[in-house]
């Protein structure tokens, strides 16, 4: 067995589990977070069986395809006006040229 094989398998499992829980987050972002949490700086070279970050993100995306919500079947929808009523843009005109 190659060195770091068990740790690499554990990292792959953690990435796929996180991907299925966080469906709308970016796959590369989740891969990066798990690698930062699981692997000490400089130890990534000691795991030759661990796939690249791009491959890990692809594997995780493939795993979470089944848990993503279905695409909408029509374009009819109702807007909720309550959250938008409390929105107030914050901007300042001071220092703007020509004003």
Helix and strand arrangement:
Blueprint: H1 5-21, H2 27-38, H3 53-64, H4 81-85
Helix pairs in contact: 1-2, 1-3, 2-3
The arrangement of helices and strands along the chain is HHHH
Shape: flat
Which structural class matches the secondary elements?
mainly alpha
Beta content = under 5%
Assembly level: single chain
Number of helices: 4
Distance N terminus to C terminus?
70 Å
Number of strands: 0
Mean pLDDT across every amino acid position: 76
Q: Which stretches are low in confidence, meaning pLDDT under 50 for 5 or more residues running?
A: none
Radius of gyration: 22 Å
Q: What characterizes the major β-sheet?
A: none
Provide the helix percentage.
40-55%
Give a concise summary.
The protein has 99 residues and is mostly helical. 46% of the residues lie in helices and 0% in strands.
Write a structural description.
The protein is mostly helical. The protein has helices spanning 5-21, 27-38, 53-64, 81-85. The radius of gyration is 22 Å and the shape is flat. The model has no long low-confidence stretch (mean pLDDT 76).
């Amino acid at each position: 067995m190659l060195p770091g094989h068990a740790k690499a398998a554990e990292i792959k499992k953690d990435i796929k589990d996180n991907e299925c829980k966080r469906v709308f987050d970016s796959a590369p972002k989740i891969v990066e977070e798990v690698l930062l949490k699981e692997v000490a700086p400089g130890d990534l070279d000691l795991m030759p069986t661990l796939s690249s970050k791009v491959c890990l993100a692809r594997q995780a995306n493939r795993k979470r395809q089944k848990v993503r919500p279905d695409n909408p079947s029509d374009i009819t929808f109702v807007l909720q006006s309550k959250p938008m009523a409390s929105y107030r843009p914050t901007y300042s005109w001071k220092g703007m040229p020509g004003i």
